[in-house]
Amino acid sequence: MWLEKRRFPSPNKKVRLFSVTYLSQGLKVKGLLAEPAAPGNYDGFLYLRGGIKNVGMVRPGRIVQFASQGFVVLAPFYRGNQGGEGDEDFAGDDREDAFAAFRLLQKHDLVKDGRVHIFGFSRGGIMGILTAIEMKEAAASFVSWGGVSDMVMTYRERKDLRRMMKRVIGGTPEKVPEAYEWRTPFDELEKIEAPVLLIHGANDENVSIEHARRLERELLQRNKSVDTWYFSRYTHYFPPRENRRIVRELSQWMKSRPWTSYGKLKEKRKGGGL
Length: 274
What we know:
The protein is α/β, with parallel strands linked by helices. Helices cover 34% and strands 25% of the residues. It has a single domain, classed as 3-Layer(aba) Sandwich (Rossmann fold), CATH 3.40.50.
């Protein structure tokens, strides 16, 4: 399952932290795993980070924050980061690192069958969309917080990212439209079966709220389950007290989602019903 799993210092004695290495498309990818210390079975939580390289790195405190809500959390660093093999390519082939991590959570001894959730922050939003599309009914829910949904919109909005995007993606949206379309999979949203929650600050200048609104419209047009928590006063980063409150509430939202048909089938098989 893991190529390597090493204890990592945890700021919370109720949560065990591990540095892990796993395979994705034959590449060794690094990540951070958090497990509640108390015995039991828990929902799984795939944490998809934002940024690229040293911007938006996985923070142990954030992972522990979610694990302390009663989740087994796995946060991939994505390929090419922190000693991992390959090159991160901004929701290109590195999407496979998220897919592989989701499947590892499915196999984790402490994770309930059929109860793996997807969470994406910032650039992690598009990674989460791609993962929800790939996993279909196997995903228990998908939450995007300040998440990217449209890569062309990101190129237009973020002049400071254009040089990086042209280098990593291969050019501008006009030069390589297919590369941007591959990273903006609205035409595949029909495959999403998980209930979706979109969280966004209206004053977000890193990822405009139009990313959430467009994704909301596209999902509703396909009769998908989508809830929205939009905050008129907040930016990309919420005040600490509000952040903690929303972490608690989105955790409850996740756990209260009905079991998917996939999850129910897994439970029946486990209990000898099939």
